[in-house]
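ingest -> validate -> predict -> emit
validate: passed (alphabet ok, no gaps, 538 aa)
predict: started
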Amino acid sequence: METDTVQQASATRAPGSAGGGWTTRGWLGAGSGAVLVLLLVLTAGGGWVLAHATDVNKRLTDRWSPALIASVRMESALINQETGIRGYGMTGKREFLEPYQDGVAQERAAARELARLTEGDERATADLTRVREDSERWQTTTARPVSEAAEPTASARQRTESGKSAFDALRASLTEQQNHIEAERDRARDDLQAARTLRNTAFTAIACVVLAVIALAFAGLRRGVQLPLDRLRTDVRQVADGRFGHTITSSGPADLRALARDVDGMRRRLAGELEFTDRARARLDEQATELRRSNEELEQFAYVASHDLQEPLRKVASFCQLLERRYADQLDDRAKQYISFAVDGANRMQTLIGDLLDFSRVGRLHAEDTDVSIEAVLRRTTNSLGMVIEESGAVITHDPLPAVHGDPTQLGVLLQNLISNAIKFRTPGEVPRIHLGAREQEDFADGAEGSGPRWEFAVSDNGIGIGPEYAERIFVIFQRLHTRDTYPGNGIGLALCKKIVEYHGGTIGLDTAHTPGTRFVFSLPSARQEASATGAVS
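emit:
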């Protein structure tokens, strides 16, 4: 009743609820969701830090450092122009104008580069505008007039003071521009260093948080899942070792607690069934003891039947025969017939008692099982039935016969009953022809004991045969299909054959498809060291 209650409670429990509380799946789902949100936040923060560091790095490497280089190139180009104009003004040689012309081209390229790099920065744009204005002023007042004058030397002397002051102003503008660019570059470098520090700190913090999450997940799984499973496994192992009274405790998430309760319910049910089995085994032991006692009494009764009961029967038969001989002249035919009936009844009673004794001894009193040559058993059987075989003219043949494992005496009784029946129930006017066949069976799976390699034997004859409707009845003790006047016997022979075959772990049956005559098929276990033989007996 307690087990049924546990099973009903388990069956009516809502799926997924596991008896209330958080299940392992719920804890894992919630934990995984929290970890996922945390990882998303950390990923977003790490991404922002990387983007910021990348932006600062681009500001330094892609803007202010190239801008400073462009400013220096622009200064170099203006110096080349000034050098070329001064040389041309002092010597009047045209080759001095080449540095000036190259410098003009370089100045324009550097100015375009600076305008692109400093776009959006008002201060840098104002510095570039001032430099270009000062450069244009120097070009207008000094460089172009000198380069275009017919008398470059005189023109250069006239513009010496104004050109110097204009170029000094230009240099001052360039210096101020470069100072501003260097300040921006230094500020970008400081920002880059700060971004790197922030990046390293952020990723260190992210790594620490990830490690902490892993440690917490491991600790949570250990405490919430592993330890309850270890306790459950320990309890189950104790039950498996035979301590069925040990209670299985429940702990951990709801589904593990439900599992522990179900396992404990199964333990209680097994304990109850084992207790019931122990009680049944005790009753069986008592019954087996009673059965052994009853068998001993039956054996004693069989001994009395074979010894004490046969003696009075022999005395009755002897005195009836003595009465007939001594008073033969005083007895009429009816009295002699009565005496004959009494003697025949006593003799049949003696035979019946002997047959019952043989039937009861099968499986109890026998020699030790050994490897038996069926050909040798058949030879002894035909020798013992020699007179009956000779009188009937029976012809007995056989296939090559193997050796089997069993009791040679009982196997002899088996063949003797089958062959004597074949001779007894022969067709009138025909010579009895009896054949013993044998074939090996590798797989024996009919439910009998002693599975393994076996031999199937068949005793066939050309006698009167047995109807299929009697296939089971003929193996029941005292069952007869004919009267004693037609065919003598007690109806024990085939029952004895069945008992002998079943004792050896085989089966015996009637082949209802065999015609004409009768064919009995039975199986016996193969010999452990098989020896085959061939031959014929007639």
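Confidence is low (pLDDT under 50) at residues 1-19, 444-450, 530-538.
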